């Protein structure tokens, strides 16, 4: 069925061909922010956006497909951020160590400000249940490879230990940041105003000789 043939969309809303899918994703993100993944259902989503369930099912046949698609968006954003910090014009005037610190700060800030969304991208709702779609697995793998590439560049620039295997160093550095993010999100580390100090400490520990150059 083509979207233009779904009379319920025309009748119940002003959405056009290109924006209903994104509107459904945007509304899902808000639902997750407000009540977590458990609050999401296609019925509630359709009601919130103001379209029929048929219209919602036209784009997402079930809740898992919807959540996986939303998680994919998060990983694409992640991929673009790594590329921008590593090679983009926004960071070209920063020294290598300052760029790496910028990535650490962005990681932890993003996780704190988008905690429910972060949970969706990395949590058990998808990965523990082994329900990730092929496209989500693909972009998640590509993002980790970007992290490995960034690690290699930092090793070549002398700010991360050159003697360590790049893959293992990427795993450990990501694991370190993920652990900090989880402690902040779960409220175990409650002093979010000390985020700058935590980022500097993480950078000092991970970087070559424990110094920001």
Give a topology summary.
Blueprint: H1 7-12, H2 20-35, H3 42-49, H4 53-59, H5 63-87, H6 96-113, H7 115-122, H8 134-156, H9 166-185, H10 195-206
Helix pairs in contact: 2-3, 3-4, 5-6, 5-7, 5-8, 6-9, 6-10, 8-9
Describe the structure.
With 213 residues, this protein is mainly α. It has two domains: 3-59, Arc Repressor Mutant, subunit A; 70-210, Tetracycline Repressor, domain 2, CATH 1.10.357. The protein contains ten helices and no strands. Mean pLDDT is 84; it is low at 1-14.
What is the architecture of the largest domain at the second tier of CATH?
Answer: Orthogonal Bundle
In the CATH scheme, the class of the largest domain would be Mainly Alpha
Query: Strand count, sense and closure of the main sheet?
Result: none
Order of helices and strands: HHHHHHHHHH
- Which structural class is indicated by helix and strand composition? mainly alpha
**Average of pLDDT:** 84
Q: Rg to the nearest angstrom? A: 20 Å
Overall 3D form: elongated
